[in-house]
Amino acid sequence: MIANGLARLLLAAVWLLHWLPLSWQAALGCAFGRVLHLFGRSRRRVALRNVELCLPELDAAARAALVREHFQWLGRSLLERSMLWYASAERLRRLIHVEGDVHLAERSPRSVMWLVPHFLAVDVAGTAVQLFQTKTGCNIYTAQSNKVLDEALRKGRYRFSDAAMFTRQQSALPMVRAIKRGMPFFNPADMDFGLRDAAFVPFFGHPAATLLAPSKLARSLDMVVQPVLAEILPGGQGWRITFLPPWDDWPSDDALADAARMNLYIETLIRRNPAQYLWVHKRFKTRPEGAPPVYG
Question: Where in the sequence is the domain holding 224, given as residue range(s)?
Answer without folding.
Answer: 4-276
